[in-house]
Design goal:
Number of domains: 2
Largest sheet: 6 strands, mixed
Number of strands: 10
Pfam family, one: BCA_ABC_TP_C
Radius of gyration: 18 Å
GO molecular function: ATP binding; ATP hydrolysis activity
Bound molecules: adenosine-5'-triphosphate
Strand order of the largest sheet: 6-7-8-3-9-10
Order of helices and strands: HEEEHEEHEHHHHEHEHEEHH
CATH topology of the largest domain: Rossmann fold
Distance between the termini: 22 Å
Number of helices: 11
CATH class of the largest domain: Alpha Beta
InterPro entries: AAA+_ATPase (IPR003593), ABC_AA/LPS_Transport (IPR051120), ABC_transporter-like_ATP-bd (IPR003439), ABC_transporter-like_CS (IPR017871), BCA_ABC_TP_C (IPR032823), P-loop_NTPase (IPR027417)
Protein name: ABC transporter ATP-binding protein
Keywords: ATP-binding, Cell membrane, Membrane, Nucleotide-binding, Transport
Shape: globular
Length: 262
């Protein structure tokens, strides 16, 4: 997707002047962000820049100290995370939250049921609920490339496969926006391309907000990149703008930002 195409898309998620204080420490000093629908929007920055804190604010995992968050036309600033999940936000699970003794398919089924707890009981038993649940699980299995492993206990998957299952767990909630926090961490080189293709493919049906330290991946798959430093937005733009931005280069103190293309 070109920058022009991305910038013409409607804004799905907007943060306005979001702050987060821990006592006297300012973790976020007033962050503005606009995430457009059906794009991959990456948030990068040096360690401690405030990326994870911003994710916590956007997904409702922690409360803001100030500012406003609007998702899909609704002011969600004061809504708890489970309400935001129902509005269509999903955050990728961590490997530690997979049910390691259960087959991949069962992990996804439980995640699909988690969307609407009130419906969870009939998701598998009532004919319509069961069908839609089974459809979701089958689609997600294909999407994350684990269809062949549907019956394999999650604990027997490789690390790369487990990380794709985490993404699948979030997808099972059929979200509008999916938040991925370092989905490639700890991955071997062989698994990186699979994850990259997976994330890139998600924007057909979802909006992706991504924290990622692998600059090669960020530069290759992002429509928009927001660079954070010391709890504020340092720069924002398409990959070529960010790659060439002197402020960003000096924030990273070197060539990490080039994604191998400098
Ligand atoms: N619960 C907390 N109490 C106090 N300070 C915190 C708390 N959580 C985060 N911080 C601080 O807020 C700052 C931003 O942290 P955050 O985890 O958001 O950074 P990050 O950009 O995600 O870093 P990394 O890339 O290392 O994960 C850091 O200085 C961190 O020490």
């Amino acid at each position: 997707m070109s920058a022009t195409t991305a910038s013409g898309r409607p804004v799905l998620l907007r943060a306005e002047g979001v702050t987060k204080h821990y006592g006297k420490f300012v973790a976020l000093g007033g962050v503005d962000l606009q995430v457009r629908a059906n794009t991959v929007h990456s948030v990068i920055g040096p360690n401690g820049a405030g990326k994870t804190t911003l994710f916590h604010m956007l997904t409702g995992n922690k409360t803001v100290s100030g500012g406003r968050i609007v998702f899909d036309g609704h002011d969600v600033t004061r809504e708890p995370d489970h309400r935001r999940v129902r509005r269509g936000m999903a955050r990728s699970f961590q490997v530690t939250s997979l049910f390691l003794t259960l087959p991949v398919r069962e992990n996804l089924r439980l995640a699909a049921q988690g969307v609407a707890p009130a419906k969870a009981l009939d998701c598998w038993n009532a004919p319509l609920g069961a069908r839609s649940c089974a459809d979701t699980v089958a689609q997600v299995l294909e999407r994350v490339g684990l269809a062949r492993h549907a019956g394999t206990p999650a604990g027997n998957l490789s690390h790369g496969q487990q990380r794709r299952l985490e993404v699948g767990m979030a997808l099972a909630a059929r979200p509008k926006a999916i938040f991925l926090d370092e989905p490639t961490s700890g991955m071997g080189i062989d698994d990186l391309d699979d994850m990259k293709r997976l994330i890139q493919g998600l924007k057909d049906e979802h909006t992706v907000v991504l924290i990622e330290h692998n600059m090669g991946i960020v530069m290759d798959i992002s429509d928009t990149i927001t660079v954070m430093q010391l709890g504020r937005v340092l720069a924002e733009g398409v990959p070529d703008q960010i790659r060439g931005d002197e402020r960003v280069r000096s924030a990273y103190l070197g060539n990490m930002i080039t994604g191998g293309k400098a």
